[in-house]
Specification:
Elements (H helix, E strand, L loop, with lengths): L16 H18 L16 H12 L9 H18 L8 H17 L21 H15 L10 E7 L3 E3 L5 E3 L4 E7 L3 E9 L7 E10 L9 E6 L13 E8 L8 E12 L3 E6 L4 E8 L2 E9 H4 L10 H4 L22 H9 L20 H9 L7 H13 L3 H16 L14 H23 L4
Antiparallel strand pairs: 1-2, 1-12, 2-3, 4-5, 5-6, 6-7, 8-9, 9-10, 10-11, 11-12
Helix pairs in contact: 1-12, 2-3, 3-4, 9-10, 10-11
Length: 467
């Protein structure tokens, strides 16, 4: 094995063999901890280890998979088996490489999560992707290949995706993963760029409270030359259509999609709508710009989640700078204070209690409780109710508690749970999924764990040169 390299050069002069033997068990433990941290800051390099190629191939095999298509599980498992086979081929020369060991642990974990068998078909390491101008993935991959063919040494980076979500009282998760709770009564733009416009309308939830929630969402897919004309989608409470305003369910030229039924490929239009649960869950896919939007109705109010390429989200001018997903809510509209969400300790206003007598009752197969099922929650009662849906006490859990205390509407529990699941489905970076409110015990523990990882990385740099 070649000489190891690390970010702490010269450390080998400070380490004696006896000291290494004493701390070897600790070193192995540190390696396990660091596998989930930022391995790029310190790694052990070996001259013939090709783990980076395995990583690149796996990203290539999975980056174009879409949750909108049947057969995603099959294709992902095939890619995982190919990834595993690639790591096994280079295992001997990668024994001292930390990224290799992290990849092995990651493969095992993903196979377990996805219930993938070790034996079975694998994906081709060089999937054939047809160049289609109205397929964003194909278009960007073609640009990537073209840049390498005509400009050796030039690195064309893969597209970066952003996530934004709105739900509940309302709670906003911006493109920068800033989590805010706002009043924003009336109509407000979430996204407004050259390709997509999303506007929401929020109305008061209960008299005497500043709490608002979304009862209308308008989405405009702007015209894209050669791919699609403009299409408008509008949802309001009790009317979540499975079509655009003009009655169509798709638009534009056919494009290829991967992972069709039984692992096959198929075609859809450049822009299309999928109704997952009539009247309650609709998903919109704009393949020509790489955008996915999920809209739900839970109780009397709507939630929204969107994934969009960063380069398109940044395509706007100075007249379009008021975008909540981009810049967050204006300071005067914020309810939370720098990430801390204060819980109301007193009972909700009298108007809430009177609403129990005034509201009609409806039933729904997807609602946790009918529209009129409001009640006055205590803090502990709200936490207990939210724990039934949300196991981890992150910001989604705290938002759920806040909404129950503020509105008394148990449907907000399901809204928080669904918003979290939509985020996990669309957010491109799993390491950023969890957000904890500032000042909470969990947030403190999370912060401490980050410091521990950083210290572990430093110690790993010090000791790994002797592997």
């Amino acid at each position: 094995m070649g000489r190891a390299g690390c970010c702490c050069r010269g450390a080998e002069r400070l380490v004696s063999p006896s000291l290494v033997r004493r701390f070897r068990p600790l070193l192995l433990l540190i390696i396990a901890v660091c596998c989930g941290a930022q391995l790029g800051q310190c790694q052990v390099a070996t001259p013939h280890c090709h783990i980076q190629k395995c990583n690149t191939d796996f990203v290539s095999l999975t980056s174009h998979l879409s949750p909108a298509v049947d057969g995603l599980h099959t294709e992902f498992c095939k890619a995982l088996r190919s990834y595993s086979a690639c790591t096994q081929k280079t295992a001997k020369s990668c024994r001292g490489d930390l990224i290799f060991h992290a990849a092995m642990l990651g493969i095992t974990d993903l196979m377990s999560q996805r219930n993938c068998s070790r034996d079975g078909p694998t994906s081709s390491t060089r999937p054939e992707v047809q160049h289609e101008p109205c397929n964003y993935h194909s278009r960007t991959q073609h640009a990537h290949t073209h840049s390498h063919a005509h400009a050796p040494g030039h690195s064309h980076t893969r597209p970066v995706y952003l996530f934004c979500g709105l739900f509940g009282d309302p709670h906003l998760r911006t493109f920068k993963d800033s989590f805010q709770t706002c009043k924003v009564e009336g109509a407000w733009p979430l996204i407004d760029n050259d390709y997509l416009s999303v506007q929401v309308t929020n109305v008061p939830v209960v008299p005497g409270s500043s709490a608002t929630a979304t009862n209308k969402i308008t989405i405009i897919f702007k015209p894209y030359e050669g791919c699609t004309d403009q299409r408008v989608y509008q949802a309001v409470t009790d009317n979540l259509p499975a079509a655009f305003d003009d009655g169509t369910v798709s638009s534009g030229e056919p494009i290829h999609i991967s992972a069709g039924a039984k692992g096959a490929t198929g075609k859809v239009r450049a822009l299309w709508i999928s109704e997952r649960s009539p009247g309650h869950h609709v998903e919109l896919y704009a393949g020509y710009i790489g955008v996915t939007v999920i809209v739900r109705q839970l109780g009397r109010y709507l939630t929204m989640a969107v994934r969009i390429p960063e380069e398109l989200a940044q395509a706007y001018d100075s007249t379009q700078d008021l975008q909540l997903c981009l810049n967050g809510c204006p300071g005067g509209e914020r309810i939370d204070k720098a990430g801390h969400l204060p819980l109301p300790l007193s009972p909700p206003p009298l108007g809430l209690q009177l609403q129990q007598l005034r509201r009609p009752s409806y039933s729904s197969q997807t609602q946790e409780s009918p529209y009129g099922a409001t009640q006055v929650f205590s803090v502990e009662g709200a936490k207990q109710r939210c724990r039934e849906q949300l196991e981890v006490q992150d910001i989604y859990f705290h938002s759920c508690v806040f909404d129950l205390l503020t509105t008394g509407d148990a449907n907000f529990t399901v809204a928080a749970y669904s918003a979290q699941k939509d985020m996990e489905s669309l957010h491109p970076h799993q390491g950023r999924w969890r957000i904890y409110p500032r000042g909470s015990a969990i947030s403190t523990l999370h912060s401490d764990s980050q410091h521990i990882k950083q210290l572990s990385l430093l110690l790993l740099c010090f000791l790994s040169v002797v592997l």
